[in-house]
Amino acid sequence: MIKRLAFVAGFGIGFVVGSASGRKSYESLRESALNTWNDPKVQAKVSEGTDWVKSEVPVVGEKLAEGAQKAAGTVGAKASEGAAAVKDKAAQGAASVKDKAQGGAEAVKQKASQGGQDSGTPAKHSDAELPEPAVTEDEVDMKPAHPGPDAKDMKN
Known about the structure:
The chain is mainly alpha-helical. The chain is 69% helix and 0% strand. The chain has a domain at 58-102.
């Protein structure tokens, strides 16, 4: 029905715009459209469609509300699960950091107790392992990805 209405409206607009007779054609088209709109059969269908829409609005509203409640419940459950997982990971991370800090403190105490024996020499090994550098200076590519323009590129 909507496709037909759009077709008729497009046809009418095209007729008025493309018409050589101008105002007279517009008036006849307008009168025809009003007669069609005021036709009892058309008004009966309009009334029937309006009543159907009014009857379906509460049903659609209820379905939307149910869907929103279900989505809110799902989101709440997933958020709770995520929060619990984050809490567990944070507790594990804190315990790991605490253990490593205690180990480092003990190593420092041992070094301090040895104090004067090798005070002038740096320690060769420590409990803390440092990562290796990712690349050396020689391995870094210092060439530009795109070379700059030269004289032949500057021609106008």
